[in-house]
Amino acid sequence: MTDADVDTVLFDLDDTLCRYQRSVGEVLSLAFDRTGVEPVFDADDYVASYDDYAERADSIDDLRRRCFADLAADRGLAPDAGRAVADAYTETRDQTAVEPLPGAAAAVEALATDHRLAIVTNGAPEMQTAKLGALPFGDRFEHVVHGGYDAPAKPSPEPFHHVLDLLDARADRAVHVGNSLGSDVRGAHAAGLRSVWLADGSTPAPTPTYAVERLDELVDPPWW
User: Are residues 105 and 202 in the same domain?
Assistant: First the structure.
């Protein structure tokens, strides 16, 4: 097989195709302010805990209430204080207030002309659907698989296999584009796909098949 055999491109969503206009840290700070709860945990604590709750929660709101209750309790506050912060976070966060990353629109539009496109994202369906619907190129993707909900979360190979089954596509003819070495690159390789890493300047481990600094570098794909 040669590199020119690629006919399917999968994308991560968060911090690959789009990002929030207001960061997790900003929204969390506002939630603490609104509730008057002492800010005993931060955005890094929330993000690091997210996947632990994804497969047990019924929704993103339920996930956040479970997570924040435990984070608060671990730091000596009542679980109800954490749940209050979670509710304030939900009221503050607008899931449609996202913006495409530089070059994302150009990459998606160019690749859509001769590749099948889909998304593999770790995130609650209602949350990710709102984000995708706010993007000008959101209708370019044939399928979306939500890791932690439709299948185990990345880096498990299962969400990749699931979307390839939906597309009736082959792993050896597909690449996955994402910003996370741990979830996107590792998961893609475990599933038998090539990877494109949206580089952040760090030393990559595992080593991606390709690396780009901006998504519009994929207008002329490195696999051609």
Answer: yes
